[in-house]
Amino acid sequence: MSEPYPQGPQTGVPTCYRHPGRESYIRCQRCDRTICPDCMRDAAVGFQCVECIKEGAKTTRSGRTAYGGLRPTDASATSIGLIVINVAVWVGILATGGFDGRIFDWLALRPDGLCLVAGGAYETSGLSCPQGGALLPGVADGAYWQVVTSMFTHVAVWHVAFNMFALWVLGPQLELAVGRARFLALYFISGLAGSALVLWAGPQYGGTHGASGAIFGLMGALLIVAYKVGGDVRGIMTWIGINFLITFVFINNISWQGHLGGFLGGLAVAGVLVYAPKGPQRTAYQVAGLSGIAVIVVVAIITRILALA
Predict the structure, then answer these.
(1) The whole model's pTM is what?
(2) What's 177's domain CATH number?
């Protein structure tokens, strides 16, 4: 550990912590100490002092991200993999009839099941479908997989295109910041949080689908990361605001429940990841925090299933 630098006279004027005789009003973005132009070093956001740059270099050499995860060799690989899965499922749904196909019926999130009968009508009799009726299964009927598969289910081309573009833009940035395992935890917990709010506040017999819950979770996470490093969050807030505005303008066609649930889940997960105390126990704190969030989400899902059964 380096020796402390001598302190200058207490004049009330901020001075560089390394050069006490030099007046300065610039602070290191990492340690918040006052630094003069000779001690300023360009960083990803603003400026850092010489010591913080050295500490950051040690972290980089250790192969760890800023928040403890393993540094990925290709930060876009996970996002590409998720995009490939989403596009493959989308093609399969289109090939089997789109909204009218059985694959969509089985993958979309439907809180409670119903039966389609002659003439396009339906009846909400759960598993007891009348003869000749087609069962559209719901989570309350035992289709528990839908809380996950709905995150990969799209029909409209604009829907899958927008979500995959957002994933391509947001995913690599966040994976580079937190590492692959933590990024996947962020993605899936956010998506499950969206599914949980759909179960509680969405249409009981609707077929909610799309990766938007997970995508809104990534938006929330990027906001937390930007705030933590002292970045300008106005651009991110504007983007998030526009997306929520679109959500509520087209509320009859867009699931605000999935978007809001995913966003809140992303805020919570990112908060745990970036604010966990530094040191050898940081991973343990992160695992405990993410496990707690996941348990809350799962309990919310199970409680709703029991209420619908």
Answers:
(1) 0.78
(2) 1.20.1540.10
